[in-house]
Structure formats: structure tokens, C-alpha cells
Write a structure and sequence with these properties.
This protein is α+β, with helices and mostly antiparallel strands. It has two domains: 51-260, Hotdog Thioesterase (Thiol Ester Dehydrase, Chain A), CATH 3.10.129.10; 269-468, Hotdog Thioesterase (Thiol Ester Dehydrase, Chain A), CATH 3.10.129. 31% of the residues lie in helices and 22% in strands. It contains eleven helices and 16 strands. The protein has helices spanning 6-19, 25-35, 40-47, 71-79, 119-122, 131-150, 241-262, 272-288, 329-348, 390-393, 447-468; strands spanning 99-100, 106-110, 155-161, 164-166, 176-184, 190-199, 212-223, 236-237, 301-303, 309-314, 353-357, 360-361, 371-382, 406-417, 424-436, 441-443. Strands 2, 3, 4, 5, 6, 7, 10, 11, 12, 13, 14 and 15 form a twelve-stranded antiparallel sheet that branches. A two-stranded parallel sheet has the order 1-8. Helix 6 packs antiparallel against helix 9. The protein is globular. It comes from Sporothrix bragantina. Residues 1-38 are annotated as: Disordered. Residues 15-33 have a biased composition (Low complexity). Keywords: Hydrolase, Repeat, Transit peptide.
């Protein structure tokens, strides 16, 4: 065990003073006199302490026993040029024996109904579940699951998140059950972790298909703690036909992701249909501004450049992961989702409803102390400006008996920059789809915006094909998740 530094020793009395409970009734009386008025029923909560969290708001049931060293210790080691690795990396020989799926299974109940104080973190001002916080918890869950599979002696990082789509709407605030296990690991350095969120049932009560809220998969990569290079992890073995089906689905997904990268707009130009669409939109723009034409740009059509919403934030130590100097991937995911939600709301002037999140990849880590830049843009709306009837396009929102429903696809670009230099690195690209009860359209103008538009259109259509093969229900107006 590392010996605390002098700086840490100086902080210990302060930390003990801040976290210790009053030891006598006299100390409680003194505290009441200093902070009066305080009702007697609230004194216990005023002075009670909770377990420390290593990240911003992760549920306490998703923290493991291997807590990180205090930031002041990690900072001092970093300043002295020491490597900050896990202690077990040098003390244990790794076991690469194949593992079973059930060996990595982990389950946690989030008691939203039992503990009203959790609503401060998990429920927003309108009484809806904050999906960004759920996503952050799922990343923490996948970290616990993958360490059950890999064992000690490795550093695991989140490499990507697969498509997230709601399976059934949540109609009431209830206890939720998080569960996950490794479903694909072929003996390389990566593993796929499938996570589920469902309505928690009473002890002995069987679960029902409609209890499932969402399913998503995380891809985790194992690194050698000393060299930071990918390292092998145990291969997964299947015992039942169901497990074999999950494994084969993971293998097919891995191949599909490789094929998709080869057909992206960075590698392949738009096809004939997409090129024709771009040309039609360009002609429509000319018509909007031609004084000799009667058509004018409708008030519900907005230029893509006007939909941008950006943030910049310093990454503080409280957001770090268990590897000390890097930001927790779940926190990063939460920030992108909430910015996308705000972007869709600002664009439509209405409350968005979450539909899906497309697969995303974390391309580079975000260090503590760096500045994280996020830019959200409405990249596509469905129907498109030139794909719906002109008469419908000019109808005001209040002219119909039921408000129209528009799908809004928001793209969030993430970059990070160290304080000491001006070079920014791309950390990821995130795509979220919402629906809004408004008739609103986005209009690209530049070539870059057209490429964003076509890329988002492809993603939306791919998601629609996937939904046709999945038993997803839709009950507008009762879903308490956003």
C-alpha cells in the first residue's frame, strides 16, 4: 500500500472533520445554534454522510471495493513522473482460462420508489427519468462486469456503445433493475457487455417482457496497466443455445461495424439517390430566395447553422474513472445526451422524447484538467423539407386537430484540448434521435452540412429497419423517460 504524501497527511484531519458524525448531544446542540433554524427531524440528514463517489452521480451500488487513491496522491505522482497503475498489476499473475457468461453476471436494484432522495439525481423537473444518468450508470455497470471476466491486472476502458433503443415505455416511477454480463469475447483485447434496464419485481415474482425498459451493449478494451497497449483477455465459452445465440450476435455485430466503416461518407461518396436529394434541396433554397418565385422559406424551416449549441467545461477530478487521471466514459456520455436533448428542445421549442441513440466510438481519452468541447447540431429532420407535400409544409402547428410529429436527429461532436497547448483532439461523435410534437424542418446550406444531413438520414433509415424486426411498443403521452 502506498504511503500517503505530506500533502495528503495535511488534508486528513480536515477530511475527518468534514465527514465525521457528531458524537454527543452537546455537539448537536452547538450545530443547531450555528445553522438554526433546523427542524429536529432533519438533523440526522443534515449531519449524515454518504459513501464517497468517484464520479458525478453514479449510483452507490455500482461502485466496487477497489477505490482509487485520493486525487491529491494521484496528482503528486503525476507531477513526479511516476506511473499511476493499479497495485494488483504487479502482484498477481493473470489467468486467461476461458470464462462462462454467468461468471460475469451482475445485478443491482436502483430503488427509485423506495428512496425518494434518489429523485434528485434520476428524475428531472417534469417528473421524467433522466436517461443521461441511466446511461452513466450502465457504463459503470459494464466496468464491473468486464472486471469479473478479465480478473485483476488489466486496465479496461470504454471503446464504444452500441445502438440504444427503448423497448417499452416507462409509465410510472418504480424501482429499476440493472443487469449485465459479457456476451462476446473471442480471446482478443475487447469484450462486449450487454446491459439491461427493467422494472424491478418483488422477490419471487417472475419478470415479464413488458418490464424491459431498454437493452444496450458496451464494448470494453483491456489495456496493459504499464504499457497502455491492448492485452488479451479470457475467451468466452457458451453453455446453452441462448448463450450461443448471444455470442454469434456479438460476432456478427463486430463484422457489421467493420463493414460500415468502409462504406461511411469518409470513404464513399453519396449514391445517386442521395446526390439527387442534395440537388433538390439546393434548388429549393434558390427558389426560397428568388424574387421572381412566389415560394418563400416557411417559418418552421431553420438553417442547420442556427441549430448549433455548444458547451465547454474543465474536467475536474470528481469525474475521473478508477484509473485516476482520465474522465469516466459514462460521464462523457451523459453530457453529450443532455446537450443533444437541449439542442432538440431549442430547435423545436417543445419537449423532445427520446427514440434511440446510434452506435458511437470513444476515439481518445479525456484527461482530468483538460477542456471538453461539445457541439450539438440538428443534422436531419424526418420528413425532409423536399420529401413532404408543399401544402403540409406550410401548415401552421395550431391548424390541425393533432400536432404533427417530427423526428429530430442530433449529432454531438466532442473534442478535448489540454490547457498547455492549443491542439484539439476528437474524442467521439454521438448521434441521438428524438421526436417533437411540432412541424419543424432543418435546412443544410454548405457541403459539410449536406454530408451531415446525408449521414444522419442513413442512420435514421438503418434504425427504422431495425425497429421493424424488434417488438417495440409505442404509447405516446405515457412514456416517463426522456
Amino acid at each position: 500500500m502506498a504511503t500517503p504524501s505530506a500533502a495528503a497527511k495535511r488534508l486528513m484531519p480536515v477530511l475527518r472533520a468534514r465527514t465525521s458524525r457528531p458524537s454527543s448531544s452537546s455537539s448537536l446542540s452547538s450545530a443547531r445554534s450555528q445553522f438554526a433554524p433546523v427542524s429536529p427531524s432533519r438533523c440526522s440528514r443534515t449531519f449524515a454522510t454518504s459513501s464517497s463517489l468517484r464520479t458525478d452521480g453514479v449510483f452507490r451500488g455500482l461502485t466496487d471495493n477497489r477505490l482509487p487513491i485520493p486525487w491529491i496522491e494521484a496528482f503528486q505522482r503525476q507531477q513526479e513522473g511516476q506511473k499511476i497503475e493499479l497495485a494488483e498489476a504487479n502482484n498477481e499473475e493473470r489467468d486467461l482460462t476461458p470464462r462462462k457468461m454467468k461468471d460475469s453476471y451482475h445485478r443491482v436494484v436502483l430503488p427509485l420508489k423506495q428512496d425518494p432522495w434518489l429523485s434528485d439525481t434520476y428524475i428531472n423537473s417534469s417528473g421524467h427519468i433522466r436517461l443521461g444518468t441511466i446511461f452513466m450508470d450502465l457504463d459503470a455497470l459494464s466496468g464491473i462486469v468486464v472486471y469479473k471476466h478479465t480478473g485483476r491486472g488489466v486496465t479496461t476502458v470504454t471503446a464504444g456503445v452500441d445502438r440504444i433503443e427503448l423497448a417499452h415505455p416507462l409509465t410510472e416511477i418504480c424501482d429499476l433493475e440493472y443487469s449485465g454480463m459479457v456476451t462476446y469475447a473471442a480471446g482478443g483485447s475487447s469484450a462486449e457487455i450487454t446491459c439491461k434496464v427493467a422494472r424491478a419485481r418483488d422477490e419471487g415474482e417472475p419478470s415479464r417482457p413488458e418490464d424491459l425498459l431498454l437493452t444496450c451493449t458496451f464494448t470494453m478494451v483491456a489495456l496493459d496497466p504499464m504499457t497502455r497497449k491492448p492485452t488479451a483477455i479470457p475467451r468466452l465459452v457458451c453453455e446453452t443455445p441462448e448463450e450461443e445465440a448471444l455470442f454469434q450476435a456479438g460476432a456478427a455485430k463486430s463484422l457489421a461495424q467493420r463493414a460500415e466503416r468502409k462504406t461511411s461518407l469518409l470513404e464513399v461518396e453519396p449514391d445517386d439517390e442521395e446526390s439527387a436529394l442534395i440537388h433538390r434541396i439546393w434548388l429549393r433554397q434558390l427558389e426560397y430566395h428568388d424574387p421572381n418565385r412566389p415560394l418563400r422559406q416557411p417559418p418552421n424551416v431553420m438553417a442547420m447553422s442556427r441549430t448549433e449549441l455548444s458547451t465547454a467545461a474543465i474536467m475536474q477530478p470528481q469525474y475521473r474513472n478508477r484509473h485516476q487521471t482520465m474522465i469516466f466514459g459514462g460521464y462523457h456520455l451523459k453530457q453529450t445526451f443532455e446537450l443533444a436533448f437541449c439542442c432538440a428542445a431549442s430547435f423545436a421549442h417543445a419537449r423532445p422524447t427520446f427514440v434511440s441513440a446510434d452506435p458511437c466510438t470513444f476515439r481518445s481519452p479525456v484527461p482530468v484538467g483538460s477542456v471538453l468541447y461539445l457541439t450539438a447540431t440538428v443534422a436531419y429532420t424526418d420528413p425532409a423539407v423536399v420529401e413532404e407535400d408543399d401544402a403540409k409544409e406550410n401548415v401552421e402547428d395550431g391548424d390541425s386537430e393533432s400536432p404533427p410529429l417530427t423526428r429530430v436527429h442530433v449529432r454531438v461532436d466532442s473534442k478535448v484540448r489540454e490547457m498547455e497547448h492549443g491542439t484539439a483532439r476528437v474524442t467521439g461523435q454521438f448521434h441521438y434521435t428524438f421526436t417533437v410534437p411540432k412541424n419543424v424542418r432543418v435546412l443544410p446550406h454548405t457541403y459539410e452540412e449536406y454530408m451531415k444531413y446525408i449521414d444522419a438520414r442513413r442512420r435514421l433509415r438503418a434504425g427504422a429497419k431495425m425497429r421493424q424486426s424488434l417488438p417495440i411498443t409505442s404509447q405516446p403521452g405515457v412514456n416517463l423517460t426522456e
